[in-house]
Amino acid sequence: MDPSTAPDEPQQDDTGDAPGADDTEITPTQDAAVEAETDGAPAPTDPGADAAGDHDEDHDNEDAAEPSEVEPNPEATPRPKDEAEPAARGEQKGAKSKPKPAPKKPPGPDPAAVTKRIGTSNEAALRYVLSPDPSLTRLSRKVRESLITDVPPVTAGALLGPDALARHFVASAAAGRYRDLFSLWELFRVRPDEVKPVLAERQRALERAREMLSKAARLGMGGRAERVAEDIASAQGLIWTWLREIVTADLVAVGRRPQIVTALLEREPNLDIPLPTEPTDSWLAEAATVRQAKPLPAEVDALLSAHVDRLPATVATLSLTAEHYRDRLPALLDRVDLDSPDIGSIMAWARDHGMGDRLRERIRESVEAASGDRAQGLARWQFWRERGVDLPLPDALRTPTIEGLDLARPESAHLIAGLVADGVSIDPQGQLDALATRNRQLAEKAYEAFVCADLDVHLPLALEGNPIVRDGTRCPSCQAWTWVRPGHEQRCPRRREEELARA
Q1: The pTM is what?
Q2: pLDDT-derived band of residue 78, with 50, 70 and 90 as boundaries?
Q3: Burial 126-149 (b: 16+ CB within 10 A, else e)
Q4: Is residue 435 part of a domain?
């Protein structure tokens, strides 16, 4: 047979040997994969790579016969988790490398500079509207719209013009800030052409603002009258008409608040306001507060003058009475509370205004009245003595005995020292020893007071082992318990004697 026409049997034999050859070539790859898996190396995760290799091998062996069944290699099969992790890492990397760009704002002035230029109050906004900045008025609409979101509302209204500012005032007053109505009227007065259309189209909002004004006035007549008085003094034009209708609708309630009466009579002098015949203490205090700031209407001033002596006797009311109602000053001075925390200031004021003797006489009478109880009378006498009031010792306290005295008080020790110096037969040490057997804590106080009064006493035996006294808390000079009254070391006479002796 012609070799050229004969079938290619050697090639068939080679083809038949191809599976064996392929197996010989695949085996090292599988062993390498097993070794890589054993060493901890990641398995291939691209299934297309194996497919491409098989495809190339098929091209190299075009005539090779396909095996009837191919077992999958578990080591070379990619896992779903291995496929997901690189994808997730790719997404995270892409998210970090491509941040979302911030929206660009149109170029323009800094909002903080605009706020500083215009201001944040109604008065500043009104001033800017009257004299706007040319550099801001030339801004484009787009730039201004981007600015108003970063500045306060009143600043934005002034930036956009009188009509926008008027709309802001109306909306703000309708929301509860009724005092913006006063600024609205000022804006209407200087720029009526721009504001009139706004008022015409915002009628319902104006009605709500009027309701807020009425509510604030009614609440103020029973509460913060100073705000109503300020509103009466500030309101103009239509706003004053609204406010006047509100306050004049209940003049009896107005008469109970001197601040509102004064403000209303300043604007309406001929208005007949009924005043209380017997004013309360709060009415008098409020009227006195107004009188310190400015003159009162004649009716209010006369009522205050007739009852000024009922005021609390403080430095402020005493000064007011001395300046405007001099004839009522003695009656008010007799009402001074001698136990007041401000008694020192009141005494200084009385001395400066020539009323010190009258107040001193009141103090002497109070000490005499308290002397029925020797301990209480002596305590009152010492109280005023420490405040610079030189009073004679009441006769009830001059009795040559210690009966009724509180031995633990410093003033009692000083009185006993004076009686001993006068030759009265008193045994301070015996009294101290007897007290120590009854009450060791009071005896500790009495001993400290006796030592500071320079009485010749020593620490009673019952106090030497007193368990309430800690170690190291007795005076090294006199053994007095230094915790009884702080500062004993500075006033201990025996310590001063020791220091002089050492010197």
Answers
A1: 0.61
A2: low
A3: bebbeeeeeebeebeeeebebbbe
A4: yes
